[in-house]
Amino acid sequence: MKALSVKMKITLWYTGLIMVVLSVIFAAVLYAADDVLLLDLQEEIENEVYGNASSLELRRDGSLRLDEVDFLHDGVMIAVYDTGGKLIAGLTPMQLPPTPFKSELLQTVNSGSQTWYVFDLYLRMRDNSGVWLRGTASLSSIYAARDEILMQCALLFPFLVLLSGFGGYLLTKKAFQPVRQIAAAAEHIGSGSDLSQRINLKNADREIMELSQTFDSMFSRLEKSFDAERQFTADASHELRTPTAVIIAQAEYALKSSKPEEKEEALQKILAQGKKMSRLLAQLLMLARADANKLQFEIEKFDFSELAEIVLEETEQLAEKKNISVKADIEPDVAVEGDQTLLMRLLLNLLDNAVKYTGEGGNISFTLKRSGSAVTCTVADTGCGIAEDELPKIWRRFYQSDGNRGQSGAGLGLSMVQWIASLHDGTINVESTLGKGSTFTFTMPVKPGCQI
Fold this sequence. Notes:
By secondary structure, the protein is of the alpha+beta class.
């Protein structure tokens, strides 16, 4: 059996609640109607008796004047009796059993299935004689009125239930219209046909608007993630395609050549490209594991100053080949806690970039200082610099500025630097002037009491 939708469940719940409310209301109406009708009948019979009492007059000859007495009005029968209980004039029910007179006292008289209200009033005449004025009314009229009310309620009840159910369905349908719009947009985007589509709800309830905005934000992040994934795949394929083509070409050249020196040269190029691919794959593997939170870290306390000096020695060897001057200002015994291997890679990437993009005879400046609860490391060069509009883009994977196309590297170094800095709760910033050089600043917090 197919489960009911939320819209149908709400409609049924709403209709059921209306049925309960209407049932309680109708029951209260019927209960109150009996009391109201009885009170009305009691008031009516008393009013009729008192009203006709003023019409009774004694003529000079001693007879009663009855021409103005209304013996039957609104179901109330009026009768006049002498003091001995003999009927003088008027109407009285035939089924009414003998009932003693009790002045100004409402009596309830039962006879079989019939019930009457009887109200008597004793009147004293001018000659000191007296008469009884009796009003009689059957309760059957009340029961008939109650039955009519019950019939009207029985006819009105299903109509009101259907009307409320239909109204509840329309309200629920209207309330869920934005939800259907959200679901349709999500299904369309989920199919992958158009990741740029947004819900963009307008004039909806606040809660639905918040849900819509949350979905729109999620869709924007998904679109960026898919775009980044496509770009990543394209860039990785491009970076791997070049060394692969070189390896294939050199291998074919070596197989065709009969000269040992040409074969050796081709093998050297194959080896170089193979190492380049190996480094690229290692970087990609590390970033992939980091994205999946599967990379193992070894957090330990070590001397950051000593690590910086080791990295700087290797950088100086590379700089000598381009006649680049390297100046260092390293504060001794700067202790930190972190992954020593990753922090070494961060420094290597920054210094390697500085050497790579600094021309012959340029300068590189390296500083490492502790200030309060943070360690600050700067790498400044006099290289080609970076255009201002490209500064936000250099942290992207595989990104290389137009002026640096053709340089060795795959454009993963700065992306990895930013990730390592973030991993250590640090920050990495850059200031650069095109044609004059760049300065990268890495800041990392140090736990209190961290000493070698």
